[in-house]
Write a structure and sequence with these properties.
The complex is a heterodimer of chains A (571) and B (346).
Chain A lengths: L6 H36 L3 H9 L2 H34 L5 H13 L2 H12 L4 H10 L12 H26 L2 H9 L4 H29 L3 H7 L6 H11 L3 H29 L17 H29 L20 H5 L13 H32 L4 H11 L6 H11 L1 E2 L2 E2 L6 H23 L3 H9 L4 H12 L1 H17 L2 H6 L7 H9 L4 H31 L5
Antiparallel strand pairs in A: 1-2
Chain B lengths: L1 H17 L8 E7 L7 H11 L1 E7 L3 H10 L8 E6 L3 H6 L3 E2 L22 E13 H6 L20 E4 L5 H28 L3 E3 L2 H8 L9 E5 L2 H7 L10 E4 L6 E10 L5 H12 L1 H11 L2 E2 L8 H6 L11 H19 L2
Parallel strand pairs in B: 1-2, 1-3, 6-7, 6-8
Antiparallel strand pairs in B: 3-10, 4-10, 5-8, 5-9, 5-10, 5-11
Helix pairs in contact in B: 6-12
The chains are: A mainly alpha (571), B alpha/beta (346).
Chain lengths: 571, 346
């Protein structure tokens, strides 16, 4: 088939290759290479810096802890997410889209907000401790959550369960249940069906989700710093310390390279595995008629889902409640929430008594966030769709075997290092983007791309090659094949990837703070500003704004879930 | 190809919407600074009108990140002026040779002890003191005197009362570590910290957590926290209900606070030297200096600037804060923090 390549086809193919490669070269490899070279030049070169890192027991234990917490967090996330993915994919349950939307909210929230939410629920004056203290007449809060290892694990599950739910759940939902039913009717027990049929078929999506979750945990920064506290350090927090506090750029560069190598090794492993694991399947374009559960099963499932909903909802509710509770304690009373309810914090969000030049109202910040998110969706889809198509259709090419791990690299790259790289590399014409707002969607797209490609590739890969061949045989050029065969079949995956791009962008804090013009803060940047100063008014406002961000993303997620139900597989 | 065309058009529109408008007319002065920078719109407008200029601010992370960026871009600066390097990062900026010296005429009004760069590349703008804060109500209710010195913190009656920040991740945390080094000397500070640990010290990563989660003023369990001398009056300003007097206080006894001084400088390689000089003069002049306390909760180095009433009434300024030279901080920061980490966290 490929032997009969016509000239226009070649040009199109080249364009498809160029888009992701040029994007990565300009906005990833060039800045990263610049900062790493510059950093290592400042010290005695690579060898000396590597020796300094590997010779230090403190750095070795940081590396060990990074692996340990990431492995544990990933296993926990899978344990929590897989049953839910299965239930959502296979059974008709009420509140399905609510759970999906709910699980997506944490993913969008900046660490500061999640930390505040857990503090409102489990902190020393959180609702749980208060209830326990007044119930059992305790003098001190019985539960210590903030600054424990458990807090890191819980927060990681809270953040990443949605990746498992979505990537695995979505794929599972489109697996043709008839394969499983056939196995059942041939006498296989349910567990045999799961182990021999479902699991192998799910393997690509499962591996993709596990890899993404692991990389997220492996590079975790805010959760470890704020919720874990000073006793815990990951590679990323250490890179931040070495860079910002000590300006020890050679050591920071070696740590960043170490982090990168680990990501690369894992991704290469994943690519090998997934190429072997994935098989062309007939995916149901709409959700195949879901089954109903028996009475016992319904009870178990209901219980499990209720616990899961409570897990996602309670910190969010705690945060919402705090945003409408007066903070100032009465004299002689340590219960902060004793002051009654108020909407003052919301009302005062639009006021600026200090005439601050950088003041922005919440609606202005939401507009800024939306603009950046829209840009991120456009850029990441424009780059991600061709990349995913190449990965899916040219699985055997050396190029696409290399492209896959390359696209994953930005996720495993130190944000601190890459941020500095943007500044030292993109500051001269023709690429003088240093002060351009465009840099924000570009940076966000680097993070969103792996998600986009991960959602699209399995869907594209599952389109049976014969379908494409038939279309080509009937005279369709590759563009037509793409438009009339591939796109309609991956509409849903396209939506999921747009959703991920949106989520990554709205919740992102680091790049927005570093690059954004201060007159146009995003919501997370605005929250960060409010949290940085003393005063009940400002703290209450930060809680109110966090709640708004939460509601805003929750409603967004729900709307998209509705779209999915209506099934827009046709665009 | 229509969908792709549509996407391209949208993207082009976005590009157009985001691109800065072509500028002609007034000269543009770019001021690079840190996250916490704030200023009244009226103050900036006054400068812009007087000099027929437009001032653009670039915020580039916290004070440490901002300094790093300035050093990495030395000679080909991102901006004309950099404001916000403090005495804990000053050596890095001076060694990086990022500033052009400027002997501003306004410097004559400013006391010498604020001037830490003899070449006047970095000119002092404001200062703030990192001091212990305590919750007045807690000490009244428990018939306990608030601590009067750092040594007091080792006494059994103050066991379990103090929360501090990790000096590796927090700027007030580092300031308090430097206070103890200045107070007890390099040979004695670790013993003091070991004593604090034995007295049930609590360490958290950042100021937010210490202040809003752990401090008893906000319902936490610790009535003594490392914060700023400005925190009690600022808390008063942003209280929900008008308060007559602060409900927290700062301990400002001699040798118990660390003074952070922030500097401004003209970035080497600027194309706007004259305008940059005017801006530096402006930052040192009373108009700008009087705007500082309510915007950033730091205080003017220019004694001719008047303080707002709330600060006149309720701000306590330490008479003898700890001084550690920027050179010593730069040379020993890593070793001091590492030794502290071994003694306190392991």
């Amino acid at each position: 088939m490929d032997a009969a390549v016509k000239p226009p086809r070649k040009a199109l193919l080249a364009l498809l290759w160029l888009l992701p490669l040029v994007f990565l070269a300009l906005f990833y490899f060039y800045p990263l290479g610049s900062i790493l070279t510059l950093s290592l030049q400042r010290g005695g070169g690579l060898g000396q810096a590597v020796a300094a890192v590997l010779g230090s027991p403190a750095q070795r234990s940081v590396l060990g802890f990074t692996f340990w917490q990431a492995t544990l967090s990933t296993l926990l996330t899978l344990a929590v997410g897989l049953p839910a993915a299965w239930l959502l994919a296979r059974y008709q349950l009420r509140g399905k889209s609510l759970l999906r939307a709910l699980s997506g909210i944490p993913f969008v929230l900046p660490t500061l907000v999640v930390a505040a939410a857990f503090d409102a629920l489990l902190g020393p004056r959180g609702w749980v401790n208060q209830a326990a203290m007044s119930l059992f007449q305790l003098p001190a809060p019985p539960l210590q959550f903030v600054n424990t290892f458990g807090a890191i694990l819980v927060a990681h599950v809270f953040y990443n369960a949605t990746i498992v739910l979505r990537l695995v759940g979505d794929f599972w939902g489109r697996l043709n249940p008839r394969i499983e039913q056939a196995a059942r009717s041939l006498g296989a027990a349910p567990w045999q069906v799961f182990l021999r049929i479902s699991l192998p078929l799910l393997a690509p999506a499962l591996a993709a989700a596990a890899l993404l979750v692991f990389i997220f945990n492996f590079t975790s920064f805010g959760v470890v710093l704020v919720l874990g506290g000073p006793r815990f350090a990951t590679l990323e927090t250490e890179i931040y310390y070495q860079t910002t506090a000590l300006f020890n750029l050679p050591v920071a560069a070696v740590l960043a390279l170490l982090q990168l190598l680990c990501t690369l090794a894992l991704t290469a492993l994943y690519t090998r595995l997934s190429a072997r694991l994935s098989r062309p399947l007939e995916l149901a374009s709409t959700r195949a008629a879901p089954r109903r559960l028996g009475a016992g099963g319904r009870l178990l499932a209901g219980l499990y889902l209720a616990v899961l909903v409570a897990f996602f909802l309670s910190p969010l509710l705690g945060l919402g409640l705090r945003s409408i509770s007066r903070l100032t304690p009465e004299r002689g009373q340590t219960q902060v929430q004793g002051g009654g309810l108020t909407l003052d914090y919301y009302r005062s969000l639009g006021e600026d008594p200090r005439d601050n030049i950088f003041f922005a109202t919440p609606s202005q910040a939401i507009q800024t966030s939306l603009l950046y998110a829209g840009g991120t969706i456009l850029v990441s889809l424009a780059v991600g769709l061709p990349a995913a198509w190449l990965l899916a259709t040219r699985q055997q090419d050396l190029g696409s075997r290399l492209l896959d791990p390359l696209l994953m690299l930005p996720l495993g790259t130190s944000a601190v290092t890459l941020g500095l790289g943007f500044i030292v590399a993109l500051n001269r014409p023709p690429l003088d983007l240093r002060t351009s707002p465009l840099l924000v969607p570009l940076a966000h797209s680097l993070v969103a791309l792996p998600f986009v490609v991960r959602s699209l590739t399995p869907a594209l890969r599952s389109i049976r090659p014969r379908l494409r061949q038939a279309a080509a045989m009937l005279g369709a050029d590759p563009g037509q094949v793409l438009r009339h065969v591939d796109l309609p079949l991956v509409g849903r995956a396209l939506l999921v990837s747009a959703l991920f791009a949106f989520a990554v962008s709205v919740g992102e804090f680091g790049a927005s703070a570093l690059i954004a013009r201060p007159e146009y803060p995003t919501i997370p940047v605005l929250i960060f500003r409010l949290l940085g100063q003393p005063g009940a008014q400002t703290y209450g406002q930060a809680m109110a704004l966090s709640t708004l961000l939460m509601l805003f993303t929750g409603v967004g997620m729900l709307l998209i879930e509705r779209l999915r139900i209506a099934d827009v597989g046709e665009f | 190809m229509r969908p792709r065309l549509f996407a391209l058009t949208l993207f082009a529109l976005l590009l157009a919407a985001c691109a800065p408008a072509a500028q002609d007319g007034p000269d543009t002065l770019t001021v690079m600074t840190h996250d916490s920078f704030a200023v009244s719109e009226a103050v900036v407008t006054a400068f812009e009108q007087q000099h027929n200029a437009e001032v653009v601010f670039l915020k580039v992370g916290d004070a440490g990140s901002a300094t790093n960026q300035a050093v990495l871009a030395a000679g080909a600066p991102l901006a004309d002026v950099f404001y916000g390097v403090d005495n804990t990062f000053l050596s890095r900026a001076l060694e990086g040779d990022i500033f052009e010296p400027y002997d501003s005429p306004v410097l004559a009004e400013i006391p010498d002890h604020f001037k830490l760069d003899p070449h006047n590349g970095a000119l002092p703008v404001d200062y703030g003191d990192v001091c212990l804060n305590y919750d007045i109500a807690y000490f009244e209710e428990n018939n306990l005197e608030p601590p009067a010195s750092l040594e007091d913190l080792l006494k059994p009656e103050y066991a379990g009362l103090l929360v501090v920040q990790n000096p590796a991740s927090s700027s007030p945390g580092l300031a308090f570590l430097l206070t103890t080094i200045g107070h007890f000397g390099e040979e004695g500070y670790l013993d003091f910290w070991r004593g604090l640990v034995a007295n049930d010290l609590r360490v958290v990563s950042d100021w937010d957590t210490a202040f809003y989660t752990e401090f008893s003023r906000w319902g936490g369990g610790r009535p003594i926290v490392v914060s700023y001398a400005s925190s009690p009056p600022v808390d008063l300003i942003f209280a929900e209900e008008p308060l007559e007097r602060p409900v927290t206080a700062a301990l400002v006894a001699d040798d118990t606070c660390f003074r952070q001084i922030e500097f401004v400088g003209i970035l080497r390689g600027t194309q706007q030297r004259a305008l940059a000089e005017a801006w530096v003069d402006f930052m040192l002049s009373p108009t700008f200096q009087e705007d500082l306390p309510l915007q950033m909760f730091v205080f003017p180095v220019n004694p001719n600037a008047q303080l707002a009433d709330v600060f006149v009434d309720f701000l306590e300024v330490p008479q003898q804060p700890i001084l550690v030279s920027p050179e010593a901080i730069a040379a020993h920061r890593e070793a001091w923090v590492a030794a502290w980490t071994d003694a306190v966290l392991r």
